[in-house]
Amino acid sequence: MDNRLFPARPILAVSAAVFRDGRVLLVRRARAPMIGHFSLPGGVVEVGETLAEAVARELMEEVGVGARIIAFNRHVEAIAHEGDRVRTHFVIASFVARWTAGEGRVSDEVGAIDWIDPHGAPPSPTTPGLSEILANAARIERLHA
Predict the structure, then answer these.
(1) DSSP states along 27-65
(2) The CATH number of the domain where 62 resides is what?
(3) Distance separating alpha carbons of residues 97 and 83, to the nearest angstrom
(4) What is the pLDDT of residue 34?
(5) Which of 40, 64, 112, 123 could form a disulfide with 102 if both were Cys (CB 3.0 to 4.6 A apart)?
């Protein structure tokens, strides 16, 4: 994580709203940044990896779930400052996906998982903007039903 603090340039990451039987997968972060906050599963894109490959890898590594991307949702810019300096700067490509395999599990990056109703309030606390991201993802998922 240290190489992600005070970066020289933004760091590209991915996330996915994974839908299964009308519910969406949320994870509680077990690592900084935002430790203890609920969010979509995801992570940093590795060099030479497509965004779709990064989503698939991160879902399997973090929670043991397979999914098929059905659409792009939106991008998220997560920027945190410490004094005059930029402490973290992530640009996150967020996707909408449908579950294909795996029951979900915790890992060293994820302290808990929950399949929630995407139309209800997510558990608290959440990463910034999660409610709006989930609402848009639910609309997109319904359009691809």
Answers:
(1) EEE-SSSSTT-EE-SEEEPPTT--HHHHHHHHHHHHH--
(2) 3.90.79.10
(3) 38
(4) 85
(5) 64
